[in-house]
Amino acid sequence: MYTQQPAQTHPDGVPFSRSTSSHDYQHVPRPVTAMSRQYAAGDYTAPHSHVRAQLLYATEGVMRVSTEHGVWILPPRRALLIPVGVVHEVHILSELSMRTVYIDAQVAAQYGADCKVLEVSRLLRELILALLAEPIEYALAGRGDWLAHLILSELTAADTVPIAIPWPRDRRLVAVCSAIMSAPGSRRSIEDWAQDAGASARTLIRLFPKETGLHYRQWLQQVHLAEAFCRLDRGEGVAAIAYALGYASPSAFSAMFRRILGRTPQHYLSEWRAAD
């Protein structure tokens, strides 16, 4: 079932012949397995779950992952750790090279029961790519086994990124949140959104913390941060991002960014350029 034959490889060393079906990775008698798959812009994976935890990561491209509790927009350098059994769906926003890791349920218990965004270090990226060059059912006490244990160690040490977009259930708020997600730089007010949703601004203001745990402005800032990271990854400048997201000045945008994340967008740009 897991036979891996000699074959040509992708530029990053991943064999073309490796299975692209997630089912082939769920019951392999190994603590960690890794899968590679390519997606076109606009592809969609319907709601599903796994018996293993999943580290959802892409070396190129952007995807949006949704559960009943939240939405995450993931550019390269960011991965989403999804616990066992969590139902999720994936929208591919641009041509995407996915490199996903499946972790045995008992082993993954140490990472908690909530989805979390992790920084993908250069070392973690290379470890994942190296494991993808090994057989799916790699030899125990061999290179693949060592790589798997190093991946687990890097996941434990990885920095978490406090960017999550909690998702409501109230149909009026869902309509508003969906519209904002589609136009994160819109300068429309809460009153404008309320008119479209058939509710009062006061009702929406009350619903945001009740449904998402965040006040309207806090929720909007999470959307802005998610969009900003995608733009930063594309190499856009801070001033251009600030303008695109409706901020009065780059300094106002940078202040919001630093207040929530503890670092400036310039810091991330410098760090990423140094790593490339």
From TrEMBL:
Keywords: Activator, DNA-binding, Transcription, Transcription regulation. Residues 1-26 are annotated as: Disordered. Gene3D superfamilies: Homeodomain-like, Jelly Rolls. Residues 171-271 form the HTH araC/xylS-type domain. PROSITE patterns: HTH_ARAC_FAMILY_2. CDD domains: cupin_NimR-like_N. InterPro entries: AraC-bd, Homeodomain-like_sf, HTH_AraC, RmlC-like_jellyroll, RmlC_Cupin_sf, Tscrpt_reg_AraC-type_HTH. This is Helix-turn-helix transcriptional regulator. It comes from Janthinobacterium kumbetense.
